[in-house]
Write the structure tokens for this entry.
Amino acid sequence: MEHIILPKRNYYLLAGTLIGKEGNSEGNNILLHIQNRILKDIYGPVPSEQISSLQTSSFSGENKERRNLLRAISEITKEEPPEDSSFLDCSAYTVMPGLVDCHVHLAFDGVDDEKAMTGWNEPESVQPLAASRFESLISNGILAVRDGGDQAGINLLLRKITQEKKIPGPLITATGNALRRRNSYGSLLGEAGDGDNVSRLALAGVDQIKVVTSGLVSIKEYGRVGPIHFSFEDLQVIVNKAHSLGLKVMAHADSDLAVDMSLRSGIDFIEHGYYISRESLLRMADLQRCWTPTLMPVYIWTIKPGVDPKYKNIAERIYRRHQEMIKRAFDLGITVGVGTDSGSPSIKHGELYYKELELYSEAGLSTGQIIRAAMTNGSFITGTSPGIQKCHPANLLVLEENPLQEGISALKKIKYTLHG
Ligand SMILES: [Zn+2]
């Protein structure tokens, strides 16, 4: 696999098959024009004789061949391509938008929370640490993420680093610090939740607000989840304040009670939702709210070494039930996004994303549904670009196989990633 960091110039890419932003095949032999990292235009299908003249023109720097290439491009686009144009032949491959992880914590590495936190206090260590996490995400095809917050607001700093192109990284939707109740779960993620802190986060430039509405799901006792953290009224103050500032709200809600309260208070995105009830799913569908179920934080207990078999069984029961509810959510037409909660204990960035998809497949979802969840729904939930849309950043995957034909395993056969 090769990462292609898009240059600030003109790039023409010939896609053997193009999967568009809705997750459907948009045709074969499509030429994409990328300019300054933005998808400028889409041409095609390109007839086979024009493909061979594109392929026979190389860019060895020879003036004659360069002229041939520019001529071959202009025959397809019907306009003069800029002098600095280069060409990437992906006619043997499938091109699609990058995958989206709707729930990560970039400040942590999934290995050692405390060590990760000390690392962030030393400014010189921020970039190398971030670089390895970004590399791991991108290698797994994840070109956009939404960060669920950290105590120090490191996710805002990382968004800045990627925006300034200091190091290549995914598009980051940042929440700064999660809002939580004092003396309750979430101390590593944020600070006291009230309307004033919503305003402060808005000023700091967050993209969304994250609120922790419940404690954690337990794998020691089936059915047990930490308590509700906010009164309905307090939650409504936060949500109304956020909405008045044009910010959507994502809620950590591990129990059905927390989901129910979050939905009633106007929260836009439900995270986790273990033990979610059918009634809550129906309400979610009715209200057109989105759900990021995150199977990994529970599933991980079934594969971790040294876990008491009793707890393993409970974890399995929880995630199996969750799989059923995910299938039901798709059947109800709910916008489900794929999130791994990477950065949380034992969940390294990027590495378990494919497992999350596999569990969707095991739950009975079609490849098309899974791909739409992973990119189309993910783009909607994170508010980032779906990759193949004119005037939007080109964040693309080039795959050796077509996932719509070969199944989700094709998402592991990445030839190139292209991003800014
Ligand atoms: Zn989280």
